[in-house]
Amino acid sequence: MSTETAVSPEPAHVQRKALFQHLLLPLDGSDLSLRAFGMGLELAGTFGAKVLALHVVPPFNSIAYMAEVLAAAELSYSQQAVQSASRYLDKAKALAKAAGVPCQCHYAFGERPHQAILEAVNEHRCDLIVMATHGWHGLNRLMLGSETQKVLLQSKIPVLVCR
User: Fold this and answer.
1) If we measure between CA atoms, which residue out of 157, 142, 153, 136 comes closest to residue 28?
2) What is the pLDDT of residue 60?
3) Residue 2 binned pLDDT confidence (cut-offs 50, 70, 90)
4) Domain extents for the chain?
5) Distance between CA atoms of 42 and 36, rounded to whole angstroms?
């Protein structure tokens, strides 16, 4: 006895929603983050999604003495940090343009990059984070922490981690 299963095609006017529509791609300027950005662009292209490139700039930290000297140093640091962020994001914008993927670029100052990433997810309604991990172990991980690990633990949306 043979059974046939009829598959009824969806009507032409019914469109399926893509699995992911807005990807957050954090960049720290490293080769690893650029590689993860490239993978995120490929995914976005596959899903017809848009991307948000985000660079989190750590704030200037100092001991508060010699206020005038420190204020000048902080201003110089901030200007250089914004220039670096702009370079990273300009590169991201060019890569996205070449891939034909719509891309917004933002930078944010923050002591805790994972929090800035999670805030951007909520603010921009992203539905997937694609980010790199440096794969630190031992003392480096203990001293520097893992922002990727913190994002994984606290994110309410899927996170794709690239190495």
Assistant:
1) 136
2) 74
3) very low
4) 22-162
5) 10
Six token digits for residue 88: 């990273």
Instruction: State residue 103 phi and psi, 5-degree precision.
Output: -140, 130
CB neighbours of 105 closer than 8 A, spacing ≥ 6?
Answer: 52, 53, 54, 89, 90, 92, 93
* Close Cβ partners of 76 (under 8 Å, ≥ 6 residues apart): none
Q: Hey, which CATH number is domain 22-162, 3.10.100.10, 3.40.50.620, 3.40.50.300, 1.20.140.150?
A: 3.40.50.620
- Tokens representing residue 98 in the block: 């070449």
Residue 78 pLDDT level (bands cut at 50, 70, 90): confident
Tens digits of per-residue pLDDT, 94-127?
999 999 999 999 999 888 999 999 999 999 999 9
DSSP reduced 3-state for 8:
coil
| Start-end of H helices in 24-137 | 31-47, 67-99, 113-124
b/e per residue, 88-99, with b = 16+ CB within 10 A? bbebbeebbeee
